[in-house]
Amino acid sequence: MLAQVGKPAPDFRLQSTKDATSARNLGKEIALSDYRGKWLIFFFYPLDFTFVCPTEITALSDRYDEIKELDAEVLGCSTDSVHSHWAWLNTPRDKNGIAGTKYPLVADFTKEVARAYGVLDESSGAAQRGLFIIDPDGVLRYAVVTADNVGRSVEETLRVLQALQAGGLCPAEWKPGQALLKVG
User: Fold this and answer.
1) Is residue 96 part of a domain?
2) Which of 2, 3, 70, 153 shows a CA-CA span of 20 to 30 A to 128?
């Protein structure tokens, strides 16, 4: 099943960096079902140790407390191994690392999940930049895929999340606190 807005998000169970304190206890599995009851910002990025990717990962991490206040979680994913994720998480930010990231990364080493979400670049084996917002019932509510050289906006992601949570018709440029459209 391919990801489609308005339909249940493709399920997954992947090795992660969650709760890891050393390379020895890496690989705790995370499943989509672990996020039932919460909103999930699930995003794919091309590769560890690249250049645009750490800017997105750390930008989301820097706003993680705001995201949690919105009853949402964040989960990052690439086709790299959980060991590569761990090495990158232990590399300082000033050395192109993502040390201090507040949410887990999962490893889609088999590429099945990236394929299910429609972001796998079959020629390179890497994921494209895809961001998905999944509601508390596991339904995909938002999907965007961008060119690899363009980082995503955390501000826009938060705006969309809040618009989805508002539960009504949100016009273009809607911001939290503004009125929803009224029909009729």
Assistant:
1) yes
2) 70
| Domain count of the fold of the chain | 1
Pairwise CA distance, residues 97 & 157, whole Å? 23
Mark whether 53 is an active-site residue: yes
The reported pLDDT for the residue numbered 161 is 98
Looking at residue 48, what is its pLDDT?
Answer: 97
3-state secondary structure (DSSP) of residue 139: strand
Spell out the alpha helix ranges (H) of 63-146. 64-69, 82-89, 112-116
- C-alpha to C-alpha distance for 75 and 123, rounded to whole angstroms: 25
CATH number, position 84: 3.40.30.10
User: Considering the domain boundaries, does residue 17 fall inside one?
Assistant: yes
* CB distance 54 to 100 below 8 Å: no
How far is residue 169 from each of residues 44, 110, 174, measured CA to CA in Å? 28, 39, 10
Contact between 108 and 127 under an 8 Å Cβ cutoff? The reply is yes
**pLDDT value for 105:** 98
Domain that holds residue 96: 13-150
> What pLDDT does residue 184 have?
78
pTM of the prediction? 0.96
Positions in the chain whose pLDDT score sits under 70: none
